[in-house]
Amino acid sequence: PRSSHIPSRDAPLTMGLCGCCGSPPVDEAATGDDVMNRNRRCTDVLFLLLYVAFMVVFFIIGVVGFVGGDPRILLYGTDYEGNLCTEDLPVRYWVNPLEIYELTQATHTYDMKDVKSICLKDCPSTGASGLNWVCNYPDSVDGRGYAGVTRAEWAANNYDYYSQLSADLKKDSLNNKGPCYPVLLPTVNNYESCTYYGNSSLTATTALGAEHVSNGCTPSTCDYELLAVGPMVATLSSTVSDFLSTPMATFERYIDDFSQAWVVLLVMGFIAPVVLSFVWMGVLRYFTGLFAYLIIFMVNAMAIVCTLYLYMKAGVIGSDQVTAYVGTDMGENLEGYTDPSEDNQEVIKYCAHVALAITIVLFLFTLLMLKRVRTAVAVIKVATQAIGGAPSVVFFPLAPVFASLLFGAWWIAAGIYIYSSGEIKQQTCTLEAGKSPMKYCANQTAVPNANCHCGYESVMDESLQYTLLYHLFGLLWTTQFFQAMSFLTLASVFATYYFRGGSYGGSISGWINTPVIQAFRKMSWYHTGSAAFGSLLVAILQFIRIIVAYMVHQLKKAGKDNLLVKYAACCVQYCLWYLQKIIEWINRNTYILIAIEGKSFCASAYEALSLIFSNLATVGAVNVIGDVLLFLGKLSVSLTCGVLAFLYLDDDAYATGDNKVSSPLLIVIFCIIFGFVIAGLFMSVVEMAIDTTLLSFCKDCKLHGGKPRYAPPLLEQVLGKFETKAEKEAKKNTRA
């Protein structure tokens, strides 16, 4: 029950272990629950309403994208009629290799999208005993097809109806103006696009020469250039490969790799990080003190070793002094590395003196900080005890993981549909006689026309660009909101453990009403507005950083990234990154104070910063030791996942056959990233437990004259405990 006791106005202000300049009057009758609940109310409701309104529009945009988008734009190319290559005819084939070759020599507006292409079932092959042709669609919109066959018959006949053309159309085909085009070069399907390789077919080239003769062609009436296409193969292959290496084509290739190796991503990118994170959290629970003192010892030992090495390198310490401590063999080996006859000994000697000074300062600082280190170890142990006291908290990171995965799946799918909702339009290029593509047009009057025109591309208008930016900001804000609610819930759990003296009291009621569920209900009811506020601040900074990075990239593409621009961009990007980290750090501690006292975001931020700056030594010791341990955990988990993924992909199942991946590198990198992110979510439980215990301890000290009143027993043993007047009187009487 809450106490109605009012603290005495005459209660003294004192300075205690926390380093506070003073403390408010002590309410000796208040319980830990009073501290946590007496001021709690709904906070920052305006920002909650803003977030809800934003997300309503966000999901409406997604639905509109699903209705109007067509992802095939991203996976398949377009043909010469501006139609998408579909599942029936998925492969894009560029019919005239001369157009591609002239693209490398072109100085006018002209690119691969303007080269005539057609959609086929498979890449065509050169004839084994004759000449194969690839002809326009029979019902071609420019009228240069052949109405005597259907599309099904055209496909069944390997896209060839050259023999049924009139003499004029045959001569146009020999001049590379269609409707049919000879297949002289072998091609291979490279991610739904036909890439040229190898040498031109001698049989096909000979047959094409014979076809020229039989149709009465002469060098002045027919184009013989295609007969010499053989030496162009390297250039053609390189040009097509460059086109397929564009970001969109690379995106398509990665989609294919992920679809083949989804098992590796699932096992090594999700299941393995979860298991390894549990293992590391168990290690931390039982070996915190050992790790902490080992880190301190290793830092001092490395400082001493580096100092001795510099003095040996400078010739101040010789092998005789080393031999006396490490033995003859080691001393002789070190002499080869520390030859005092080397140059710049004087500089090394000064460096050695500086290193000695740093080592002495570090050693003295360690001695002075031993008490703070004991406090840090005690705080970390209490944090791990708090996790052990509520086993369900270990599984809590899975909730935001699944929530993020579900939201991410929606965001990616909606983003693809929104991006692909652009209209396919004819792009702008140079249509000039004698230059591609007009050079190979049969009808060169009144261009552009159905036969002679530029290529097609999906066009994003200004409204679509703004829609994608809105969609991007929705991702940033929502992921930060999930993280904020996770921080608030965990902070509430661990603050409850602290202020109830190292137990959860009546909070544990089986697996249905655990401390985590109770904390989540409380934080969701009272403080979703504060979570929306804090997450909005971080999302805005992330969004600005993305925009700045894009602008820098555009300047680089335009060739305007001179030294001054690069320096200014680097400074701006670094400042924004640093500012984001500061805001994230403030947010994290603010959420802890919100969980403890239930005040608004701004009031809690002020109180959190006040407590931290009043206890810098203790906070520093806890953060250094805790951050090192947690970083080692995240690094170990992520690298282990990467190694296991690489070994998995090295199996023959993914090196050859239908499941072959183009490159295991990206999948391994994704497994490492996913491993680091998931391990970070699990380590965030420990980190939040440490930070919450620390700030709860500092708040406890501030409320009770410098000594904690509600601290768990382990902290009491290290720091002592606040005693009420009644307890002091009872102790005095006992001694008397």
Architecture overview:
There is one protein chain. By secondary structure, the protein is mainly alpha-helical. Helix content is 62%, strand content 4%. β5 and β6 form a beta hairpin. The longest helix has 52 residues, at 262-313. The chain starts with 31 loop residues before the first helix and ends with a helix. Mean pLDDT is 77; it is low at 1-23 and 334-342.
Q: What are the segments in which pLDDT stays under 50 over at least 5 consecutive residues?
A: 1-23, 334-342
Tell me how many strands there are.
8
Summarize the main sheet: 2 strands, antiparallel
**Helix count from the secondary structure assignment:** 25
How large, in whole angstroms, is the Cα Rg? 36 Å
Helix proportion of residues, in percent? 55-70%
**What general outline do the C-alpha atoms trace?**
elongated
Distance between the termini: 35 Å
Structural class: mainly alpha
User: Based on the structure, what is the oligomeric state of the protein chains?
Assistant: single chain
For the biggest β-sheet, the strand order reads 1-2
Mean pLDDT: 77
Roughly what fraction of the amino acids lie in strands? under 5%
